[in-house]
Amino acid sequence: MSEERLSFQAEVSRLLDIVAHSLYSEKEVFLRELISNASDACDRLRYAALTDGSLLGDDRDFKIRIVADKDAKTLTLIDNGIGMNRQDLVDNLGTIARSGTSAFVKNLSGDSKKDVSLIGQFGVGFYSAFMVAEKVEVFSRKAGEATGWRWVSDGQGSFTVAEDEAAPARGTRIVMHIREAETEFLEEHRLRHVIKTYSDHIAVPILLGAETTDSVNAANALWTRSKSEITEEQYKEFYHHVGHAFDEPWLTLHWRAEGVIEYTGLLFVPQQRPFDLFDPRRAHHVKLYVRRVFITDEAEGLVPPYLRFLKGVVDSEDLPLNVSREMLQNNPVLTKLKAGIVKRVLGDLNKKAADPEQAADYARFWDAFGAVLKEGLYEDYAHRDDLLKLLRFRTTESKGELVSLATYISRMKEGQDAIYYITGDEKSAVEKSPQVEGFRAKGVEVLLLTDPVDEFWVGSVRETDGKPFKSVTRGGADLSKIKGEEKPEDEKKDKASDGDLSALTALLKLTLGEEVKDVRRSERLTDSAVCLVADDGDMDIHLQRLLKQHGQLGADAASKRVLEINPGHPLIRRLAEKATQDGAASSLEDAAWLLLDQARILEGETLPDPLSFARRMAAFVEKGLG
């Protein structure tokens, strides 16, 4: 086949520019990334050979070799792993075939310094070679295939692919043509230092030089070593390798379980939220090994979706080496592994959450992964109590600090028998919502829930410690029995008389008809004139809006809302006085519709008839000016 010239995917071109010029403060980590990829290639062939031993041929000992040539100014890295064919080269080196890539790249600002932290969540291993190389050649032959291939690029926007018999018998050879300014990476002592620093944990021998047989690295699986033998730096570098991550681990969990089943776990909680955390597949990033042999990084059921932020390895002694991915799906050993992992992870998270001295540190974790962790509240009933202890909230009284449910319950007012909450899209919006006014006036704390998942877990959990969860946007918010902190002047506010208010309520019901379920006097409003609430037993307002936005709820299925009016508001008092006069139904018709539209606007809803609203508003203002 003749040589083909292809263009990089647009996302790759943009990432390449940032990676090559500003991603790393220490350029030496390019070698870490390439060694990590080579190690993965060896792992994948070792697994494939379990069912097809012919893939290994006579070359059964995996290794990674690094050769520097000062005269040619080339640095070559060779592995005898699974290798790549033409399609693999195009897919793996020319595109980033991952869900969410385009959306991710759109978030890049163009400011390299700002973009570095974003790219650090993405994983760009191979492309880091262009930090030190002006040209990169990749020669590869896939295990079990006869044809070898060459991939070449200068990282400027395109690459070439062609058949090449100079490819290794199996595996991949990467030849980097080193820039003049980066020739330090052709010195043996420099390479040895980089390998020991970043790749000592790699379980494949790393050989330095064309002929040597001595391994530079320890070449045994890090998780098999005793914790006392492992430094924090070694844990960090293993996290970078296994998670293809660039931040530092927020939490490291390393343990060995013995008993009914035997396994070792080395798991990490990242500091930064991975870009694909909310990918619809909800896939985890934990690799499954059996007796130090890599099996898969896609073992469904090994880690529950609500812990998908975990990175690391689990090594089982009880699964068979030739286990297939299909066999794993209903394997009882995998079920026990999952139970042990969940117990250990939630236990360690609860230790962190319960330590007052680590409150700020835990808050950083919660801001990154709390929304995902809450999915477990309606998916994992067995661990619900442990998960409830981990929950943290911002509230109307917390001044931005995070509050646990135990703290909230300890601060409940006399006469308060429910945990009150409000859901919405933005904290600033729900904080100012008219529905919380009466609660704020009494000093009753309200949880501010702004994650989409909140609507679902609250409905599933319903209560904790004997206290039910209750939305402040539902009817029946009986604030009168709660002994709060009302100011004396609040009690003296003029309110519409019962008779006038009854007349106004009846007029509003008659005018608005089927547009509302009911019109009622409000206990929750102190500053606003009106608000909409869901009747007891009806769907919460924010949940209904979410379902409609995603096409999960038809117009006919939507619940009508209750319009609540504030008898202490000057506008309502004035309208109530007019409601008893002759001809009120006609003269106050526009006012009735304006009140409903005002309540809709406060809820963040789109007005069903903006033109009528504008006409009524103009007429109302004109009448007032007259």
UniProtKB/TrEMBL annotation:
<feature type="binding site">
    <location>
        <position position="33"/>
    </location>
    <ligand>
        <name>ATP</name>
    </ligand>
</feature>
<dbReference type="GO" id="GO:0051082">
    <property type="term" value="F:unfolded protein binding"/>
</dbReference>
<keyword id="KW-0067">ATP-binding</keyword>
<feature type="compositionally biased region" description="Basic and acidic residues">
    <location>
        <begin position="480"/>
        <end position="498"/>
    </location>
</feature>
<dbReference type="InterPro" id="IPR003594">
    <property type="entry name" value="HATPase_dom"/>
</dbReference>
<keyword id="KW-0143">Chaperone</keyword>
<dbReference type="InterPro" id="IPR020575">
    <property type="entry name" value="Hsp90_N"/>
</dbReference>
<dbReference type="Pfam" id="PF00183">
    <property type="entry name" value="HSP90"/>
</dbReference>
<dbReference type="GO" id="GO:0005524">
    <property type="term" value="F:ATP binding"/>
</dbReference>
<dbReference type="InterPro" id="IPR037196">
    <property type="entry name" value="HSP90_C"/>
</dbReference>
<dbReference type="Pfam" id="PF13589">
    <property type="entry name" value="HATPase_c_3"/>
</dbReference>
<feature type="binding site">
    <location>
        <position position="37"/>
    </location>
    <ligand>
        <name>ATP</name>
    </ligand>
</feature>
<feature type="region of interest" description="Disordered">
    <location>
        <begin position="469"/>
        <end position="498"/>
    </location>
</feature>
<protein>
    <recommendedName>
        <fullName>Chaperone protein HtpG</fullName>
    </recommendedName>
</protein>
<dbReference type="InterPro" id="IPR036890">
    <property type="entry name" value="HATPase_C_sf"/>
</dbReference>
<dbReference type="GO" id="GO:0016887">
    <property type="term" value="F:ATP hydrolysis activity"/>
</dbReference>
<feature type="domain" description="Histidine kinase/HSP90-like ATPase">
    <location>
        <begin position="26"/>
        <end position="182"/>
    </location>
</feature>
<dbReference type="InterPro" id="IPR020568">
    <property type="entry name" value="Ribosomal_Su5_D2-typ_SF"/>
</dbReference>
<comment type="subunit">
    <text>Homodimer.</text>
</comment>
<dbReference type="GO" id="GO:0005737">
    <property type="term" value="C:cytoplasm"/>
</dbReference>
<feature type="region of interest" description="C">
    <location>
        <begin position="546"/>
        <end position="626"/>
    </location>
</feature>
<dbReference type="GO" id="GO:0140662">
    <property type="term" value="F:ATP-dependent protein folding chaperone"/>
</dbReference>
<feature type="binding site">
    <location>
        <position position="79"/>
    </location>
    <ligand>
        <name>ATP</name>
    </ligand>
</feature>
<feature type="binding site">
    <location>
        <position position="172"/>
    </location>
    <ligand>
        <name>ATP</name>
    </ligand>
</feature>
<feature type="binding site">
    <location>
        <begin position="99"/>
        <end position="100"/>
    </location>
    <ligand>
        <name>ATP</name>
    </ligand>
</feature>
<feature type="region of interest" description="A; substrate-binding">
    <location>
        <begin position="1"/>
        <end position="325"/>
    </location>
</feature>
<dbReference type="InterPro" id="IPR001404">
    <property type="entry name" value="Hsp90_fam"/>
</dbReference>
<feature type="binding site">
    <location>
        <begin position="121"/>
        <end position="126"/>
    </location>
    <ligand>
        <name>ATP</name>
    </ligand>
</feature>
<feature type="binding site">
    <location>
        <position position="92"/>
    </location>
    <ligand>
        <name>ATP</name>
    </ligand>
</feature>
<comment type="function">
    <text>Molecular chaperone. Has ATPase activity.</text>
</comment>
<keyword id="KW-0346">Stress response</keyword>
<keyword id="KW-0547">Nucleotide-binding</keyword>
<comment type="similarity">
    <text>Belongs to the heat shock protein 90 family.</text>
</comment>
<keyword id="KW-0963">Cytoplasm</keyword>
<feature type="binding site">
    <location>
        <position position="325"/>
    </location>
    <ligand>
        <name>ATP</name>
    </ligand>
</feature>
<feature type="binding site">
    <location>
        <position position="84"/>
    </location>
    <ligand>
        <name>ATP</name>
    </ligand>
</feature>
